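Service request form, structural biology core

Requester: graduate student, group of Dr. S.
Request type: structure prediction, single chain
Budget code: on file
Notes: please return the result as structure tokens.

Sequence provided:
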Amino acid sequence: MGRRERELDPEAGPVQRLAHELRQLREKAGSPSYRELSRRAGYSAPTLSEAAAGRRLPSLAVTLAYARACGADQAEWEARWRAVSAGVEEEAAADDGPAPYRGLTRYGADDRDLFFGREPEVERLLRLTAEHRFAALVGASGSGKSSLLRAGLVPALRDGDAAGFRPSAVRICTPGPEPVRERRALLAPADGAEAEGDTVLLVDQFEELFTLCQDPSQRREFIDMLLTARAADSRLRVLIAVRADFFGHCADHQGLAEAVNDAHLLISGMSVDRLREAIVRPAGAAGLLVERTVTDRILAEVADEPGGLPLMSHTLLELWRRRRAKRLTLAAYETIGGVRGAVAHTAEEVFERLDPAEAASARATLLRLISPGEGGPDTRRPVPRSELQATGAAALVLERLVAARLVTVDGDSVELAHEALITAWPRLRQWVEDERERLRLHRRLTEAATVWEGLDQDPGALYRGMLLRAAREEFMADAEGPAPELNELEGAFLSASVAEDERVAREAARSARRVEVLMTLLVVVVTSALTSWVVWFLTREHP
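Core staff response, request fulfilled:
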């Protein structure tokens, strides 16, 4: 017997009423299993089960397929669906304000009115930036460093809230894979008539210098460039934000270690009182109410939990999406499985709505956005859109991931909304574990292909030897060409490496044959000469 469906209140809203009616229809049809309904309807069992779950309005096509599988009249159910859809649109139009929570994505400078609970840290960062030309913000993954910089410190700096300190410009960036080339211009102080103060550069996710930048010399050069801010006449101030588990890497550079020791702020998790502020005050600013029981349940799950802030924010965003009138309810909280289940619930909802080809595309995209740890934690990996080559159906899949806030797009860069997704979504976590070595090989292949392209496809930059054998076995195991998860550049690089290797092997074989022929001729000549000499010698001795 299948798992019993959860209780559903048909009076909770039009979506819940339609789901209740779908369940009644299934009962009248003899309560077939969802597997049997799937066979009749042509949709997966999870998709049909979700249609009757009451969490959101199913598509018209799924609703009609469900009704058809139960032997119901199609026209009648299309009319019912359209009536419910109109009701949902009316509810949305009546309460269509922006969400007061950001989910897994970070808060930005425009979100300062929704950013609560970190006021003391903002004040400390202001003093740190005003008193030191180089400083560091250190905290665990999920402690809210990026949001603290963008929604807390940046607006405060631009307002000139620091005593005796008003910067001429505030810039923010992440290192990226090529920090020297891509970030050099940001270290130039602002010019112009109004540029009287120092320029402040905030380098978020400083750990990218150790996870994405693979060139030690470029890494050291970028650090040296940042440390020029320490000079009194530099007109530049730098604040780096680094994950606590990468803090030890800063000791590899003596100057950086000294600068960080002189000025840094280590942030911890938020207290229960501040977490409560972060829950209820954004809702209050949007004219909403969070039920007290919901607040208490969230606090019980998140307090003292490392990396809990993005999970909490995502939970609150999902509750807002399922709000009843102006309330974020306990019923919605239990539906999504609480804080721990919310991320997985959202991700699974998206994934289960994909057909097999779309699911494969989503899997390839998500894995490309992850850098597997080398003796450390797995991290997210920002990539340019050109690397994803998301066109056609793949572009639609990417948009679904973005719409669900599992993935973010910032200009030309695409990345996971937060690293918490890697551990909080069991399916993704298992993918990474299953493909860990393959992912490492893929990351190296991507980097090598990029270098090859940058050198105008110089044959000297192609794979050879053990690197080529490993890549060929993993990504070109059959005669059909490179594996489908490789993009055009990676496939071209691997194909060119194989072709060059085969050309060299053929040339070596030809050379070996030439040597063999020459050796054979040499033996013949020597033998012939020796024979002639012996004959001559014998003839001379015995005429």
